[in-house]
Amino acid sequence: QMADPFLYNTGERSPYGCLGHEVQIEYLKAYVCRPSFYTDKAVIVAHDVFGWRFPDIRYVVDLIASHGYITICPDFFKGTEPWKSTDHWSDFADWMKHHDPMKVDKEADVVLKYLKEQCGAKKIGIAGFSWGGMAVHHLMLKNPQLTAGVSLYGIIRDSEERYNLLNPTFFIFGEKDHTISLDQIFLLEEKLKQYCKVPYKIKVYPGQVHGFAQLKPEDMKPDDKPYIEEARRDMIDWIKMFV
After folding, report:
1. What's the pLDDT score for residue 3?
2. CATH label, 21-242, candidates 1.20.1560.10, 3.40.50.1820, 3.30.559.10, 3.40.50.300
3. Are 11 and 56 in contact (CB under 8 A)?
4. For residue 6, which of 150, 155, 225, 126 has the smallest C-alpha distance?
5. What is the pTM of this model?
6. Is the pLDDT of residue 60 over 70?
7. 150, exposed or middle or buried, with CB in 10 Å at 0-12, 13-18, 19+?
8. Can you give the residue ranges of every domain in the chain?
9. Residues 6+ apart with CB under 8 A from 186
10. What DSSP state is assigned to residue 83?
11. Residue 46: what are its φ and ψ, rounded to 5°?
């Protein structure tokens, strides 16, 4: 029995009334939230294993939109079942085989085309959480159209071609994340120093577990709240600097 990597209970979430709406883009469904004023800047949000309908992810989409970005979370699982809190961790590796965060290029292109042609976006960044953090790391190595990325606790896969980022990327981790060791984070830092030619940043937030940064305000524990808010501010600041 594998330990549950998400230390918050996803079964008991407070309900969330979303500010945006759902759209169909080619073969993809997506959740979109727009700011109240015109902008030509956009951010793609890459969801975690719980998928594009998970309330916490929609909360983050709305939050980024409130800072002046057309924000969109496409269904990177293409209509297949997301992971559920009732699923068994022994099946997780098999589920991941069919939901590979390195195989998101086609979906990213569909969404980029939509943002440029339908929404008039000229600069587009991306932020992703957990599974989505891995997708962001992958896309920042492959897709030059993304002007900046924020990867939040994406499990680090080490190989020589993982460090030559195309555009500025910020990596956010929790100190107590038992899916990502501090050793892996130090290695990432070492390799980026060696290979990366664009601005990057790595930050570890004290005492925080996997999944900490997308909690809604009413689900936060008082001790964690300052770190959650700091991580979100840091994410927005990085986006504002480069997008």
Report:
1. 44
2. 3.40.50.1820
3. no
4. 155
5. 0.94
6. yes
7. buried
8. 21-242
9. none
10. P
11. -95, 115
